[in-house]
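Worked example 2:
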Amino acid sequence: MLRDFRALNLLILTFSAVYVIAIGLFTISLLNCRPQKTHQTTECRNLIQGYRFRARKNYLSPHRARIRPNSRLAFVFGIENAFTTTDEEYATHFARNARHLINLKAQVWERLAKRLQSSANELISTAHRLHLAGVVQSLSLRIILTTLLNAELDTLPDTDKHMVSLAQAINRAWVSSKNDVDLIEFAHNPDLQAPLSALFPTFERTNPRDNPLCWILPGFEISWRINLRMVPELLLNTGQAHPDWTVTMIAFAENPTKTQFEAPGADDISAKDLVAGGLRLYPPTKRIYRAFEWEENGARHSETFAADVEACHLSVESGDKMR
């Protein structure tokens, strides 16, 4: 069981680096109010584009429509990135840089896979009791730090301890940011600042563009959740009736190449199919928000609407072989 778990941790983190980080970087948004929702496919697509929704023409630019619902991100995490900045030129630069960082070569993926395997083994072998969420959070954060920030984690003392603390602090801040009662500004949140400074000793807290959370938050806060859901899905739930799915995923973990990723296994199911099924069942971003301003009956109106991606995924025939 533990052997399979180590391999699955590796494989899930590997495919999440390919898919979930990319999706997280370009679709993340944060709840700013209680908006109207839609799960109709066409409406969701129109809403995400940000130009028009239900006969309302948006006076905001697509960029402004996207960043306004994310205003609390800047306050809670002290960041300025493509999802919070009003500077569209900087947002474009950030997105371009992100695409470059996640476009890793095959040999880099292989080295990363081996390092994650080693880290998973260390975490499991030294634990008296296995806390699955903690292991997944630590490994998910490690892949974000090494791919997007090129962090030299092995040269720092107590790295795993600080990563667990940072993961927990991010999760607490993320949850608290969804209401006005528990909102804590980044400048006054030592629980978040301390592990971040331990992992990035040269971090300058006064410059939100240099905050490592600009890169950590979009990938980590979304990726660890789907990683956590996919482990029991493959080992304990649907995967129990399809044990060859685990074999297929472990094969990809041991050989993380595009060819292996797309190679069909038993039941004509590939690792790519399993990833697509996981993302459909557990979309990294459940809802995508857009702010709208429009005129109606001579009056100016402003509201935030939500595209319910999760409901949309579960209500349409997506061609998912795992359905």
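Residues 1-8, 10-33 have pLDDT under 50 and may be disordered. Residues 213-235 form the longest helix (23 residues).
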